[in-house]
Amino acid sequence: MASSAWYQRSVFYEVPIRAFCDADGDGSGDIAGLIAKLDYLQWLGVDCVWLLPFFDSPLRDGGYDVRDFRAVLREFGTIDDVHRLVGEVHRRGMRIIADMLINHTSDTHEWFQEARKPGSAQRDWYVWSDTDQRYRDARIIFLDHEASNWTWDEQAGAYYWHRFYHHQPDLNFDNAEVRDAMLDEIRFWLDVGFDGLRLDAVPYLIEREGTSCENLPETHAYLKQVRAMIDAEFDDRVILAEANQWPHDVVAYFGDGDECHMAYHFPLMPRLYMALRRGDATSLVEILNDTPAIPAGCQWGIFLRNHDELTLEMVTPQDRDYMWHEYAPDPAMKSNLGIRRRLASLLDGDRARIELLHSLLLSLPGSPFLYYGDEIGMGDDYSLPDRDGLRTPMQWTAGPTAGFSSAAPTDLYLPVISAPGFRPDVVNVADQRADDGSLLNWVRSMLALRSAHPVLGRGRFELVGTSHPAAFAFLRGDDEETILAIANFSAEPVGVTVDADVGRAGTSITDAVPVDLGEPLEIAGHGFRWIAIG
Ligand code: BGC
């Protein structure tokens, strides 16, 4: 059997430190709290933790606005705590990657403070202009908040360029000192022992007039330089591109296997929700057919939800309207070009649909990324600003602070979810651990199943036609095993045959029951089957 890299076999779990567990009782999660919960992640079957930004920051964009790349946000802990965290993760046989913010900094970063001074030698570290009319073909990403990608800086007497919030100036990657400085930041955190880095907002590193300023060749050239440095100086690390782009543009981030090891498949995600609502897999089949093959050693990262809005940038305007209509009935649920809701509330807490989407997350090509709290069906609070409603305290136990903190409920960094059906007395880890039939125990059993069938991580992928439009089927295969996965997107049971020569003998791997593939397969409404062939 061809060997596969660790990140091709891993299940990732996304942790915002602030939201996970507060060990010191100040109302905000911290690194010590996360360390205390590593046994839980190991019990769940997580292979790799993805840590959201933990660097010193004014926290005007959840920490994606970095003031100092080498300093740990004081309320989270110290650099010693980070060393301890990495060691404790590794001691449990898990891995850990961190977010790396390479495109921009906070305007409070000393680089920017230096650059804006008149006559500064560091002026060129950011992108300045006398006019706000340059690069007009670049779209605005935070549409709800920003009217331009340029903001005037009085002290500098110039406009500076920013693809996100105006307080997040973009670094100038045409400047060799910036390119080197960022390589040093990357080295620093890999030296600490992180197994990899999620490279945030990579499409936007370089600007050129007359282009969208996204995915430019010079951006790819720099990422290849990052990869070459990592290959030369470190063993077995991974870099993951966050590029919210169409599949043909994203595959460029793999290069010829010499750029990023992983990249998220953004366009896949909204189509899972579309297929589910329409009871029709067509849009999913289209995007998968439109996804080019990727080089050996590379892997997609796939997800159902994350800490951002459910982005609808990679769908047609018609499909965006459909998604908003179906999943954001209250306009307050919308955010930029997306929807700020969590998995369980998007699916009305419906267990069958939550399981169906998880079954696809765990079997479609790519490594799955779980978002903290989705394994227990946590809800959201869209009355909170921006994306805060998706980042509320993890619900460990029943009770007013959900076992997240010993602080008073009013002293928490964000309130615990109070929506009926999603409050901590209804949704929490402790109760679900004790209940064999809970969503949490179901997710855990599915992670175990995935790990027992490595073909689901590394195997070939082949779409298979079916006899029913609501039935979506595909094969995952390698030298050891072939699995047929079938999902029923309709609420009604269906009898399905597949257009593939798979023989008659199969075994349903969720319950080890023999299946006759010569007969139509019965699949419950919103049900799925994973069948080992042969
Ligand atoms: C992160 C967002 C953040 C943005 C700007 C994104 O890629 O996921 O949470 O707001 O970058 O830094």
Number of E strands? 24
What level of helicity do the residues show?
25-40%
The N- to C-terminal Cα distance equals 18 Å
> How confident overall, as mean pLDDT?
97
The shape is globular
Q: Which structural class fits the helix and strand makeup?
A: alpha/beta
Unreliable runs: none
Largest sheet: 8 strands, parallel, barrel
Content of β-strand? 15-25%
Oligomer: single chain
Bound molecules: beta-D-glucopyranose
**Number of alpha- plus pi-helical segments:** 17
- Rg (CA only): 23 Å
Strand order of the main beta sheet, please? Answer: 1-2-5-9-10-11-12-16
Describe it.
The chain has 534 residues and is α/β, with parallel strands linked by helices. It contains 17 helices and 24 strands. The strands form 6 sheets. It has an 8-stranded parallel β-barrel. Strands 17-18-19-24-21-22 form a 6-stranded antiparallel β-sheet. The radius of gyration is 23 Å and the shape is globular. It starts with 5 loop residues before the first helix and ends with a strand. The structure holds beta-D-glucopyranose (BGC). Beta-D-glucopyranose (BGC) binds at residues 61-62, 64, 164, 200-201, 242, 307-308.
